[in-house]
Each structure stands twice: as C-alpha cells, then as structure tokens.
Amino acid sequence: MHVKHSGSYFLDLICILLVWYEYGMEDEAVYAARRERMVAEQIEDRGVRDTAVLRAMRLVPRHLFVTLPYQQFAYDDTPLPIPAGQTISQPYIVAYMIAALKLQPVDRVLDVGTGSGYAAAVLSRIVAEVYTIERHKTLVQYARKRFKYLGYDNIHIRHGDGTLGWPEHAPYDGILVSAGGPTVPPSLRSQLAIGGRLVMPVGASKRKQRLVRLVRRGDDDFEVDDLGPVAFVPLVGAEGWEREQGRE
After folding, report:
1. Crossing angle of helices 91-100/51-59, nearest 10°?
2. Catalytic residue from among 8, 89, 124, 178
C-alpha cells in the first residue's frame, strides 16, 4: 500500500525541520526561565496587569522569532533586527499595546505589520482569530514558517498593503498597527467594529510618534486616548507614508 503526500505536506515538513534545526538545540527549560523573568521584570513590574497578556507572553517563544545571531538576546529588554530591514519590538511594548486593546477570548483581531510574527503569535494565544498583513514577502514567509512550526492555526497571514486592512474579514474587535503613520488610515477606521479598539503609533515624524488608542463609539464617532511617546518604523502604503526611493 502506497500513501501519497502532496508537495505542500513535504514543504511544511521541511519548514518545521529547518526551524527546529536552527533553534531547537538548547533546552526549552532554559528559554522558559528567561521568559518568566522577562514577564516578571520587564512587563509586570512596569504595570501591565492583564492576566491573558501575561500568560501569552509566557507561552510564546520569542527566541523562535529572531534570527540565530540575536537568539541570545531574545528575552532582553530591547528591539532586535529581523529580515527586510525591520525590527521585532521590545517585549514590553508588545505587551503594553496588546493590553491596551482590552481583548476578550472571542475577539477577532487585525494585526497590521506582521514583521517577525511575534505580536500575531501573542495575540493568537488570547483571541479566537488573528488576521495579519505584511508588505514584505520575505517576512510573510518568515512568519508563516514559525506559525506552522508552533501549530498556531488560528493565525491567517497574507502579503499586502496593511494600510488598506483586510476588508473581507471585517469588522474587527481589535486592530493592532505595529508601524507609525501620519494619521490613522481611513480603511482601518472603517473596519473597526462598534465598540472595537485600535492601537497605533501616529505622528508627523517617520521615526517618532505618539501611541494612540481609538475606540469606535458609532459610525463616525471615535474616542481617542494618548498612550505616550513611541518610536516605530514607518507605516508604508496607500494610506500611510510613501515608500522611499531605492528601498523595498
């Protein structure tokens, strides 16, 4: 008896083996201890009290979302480089932004700017469904491989312009934007459910912004909270910043 497997099966298996080979050599207990210390000292001690967020931050292995040269720094209080000239945010800011969304287990969330996939992975341990968009094809592949390896099957990822959202699955109970734009894109406003929350860096500078939270109270009624200064990479797209000449 011969069992046939599709090419997709073998591709998935190869992806899983590659991630295991690159990151699976050190005892997971060591990483778990580092995560516990990260949550206690960098996140909980700074005032994040949302138990679902703290639990998710303890569960998701951040070291799998950074490249090998930076693995040793995965649980430090710092952003780190990832492919395509982007960064993975420091653990505290990821936890703080997600906590600001005030999520529930039944919620559906749009994650704009997948990057490494780490924020989407944390979200996936808190809510029912995560839809995440990334404009760099390299990072779509990078993140998808990690979601597959970890079995995070409630994350849906696609390549595209995040400033336009993902209207086919709207409305969303929460929208997380991990890049800074000059304003909140109208498309993202329109895809937020009534009562939904959007958290995003906004500012006139491409490198320094204010973190804002929008709560949709009605069709054209948005409550805005200023959550403080932040510094994110620019949100590039039709309703964000224009792409700089000579860059992807």
Report:
1. 140
2. 89
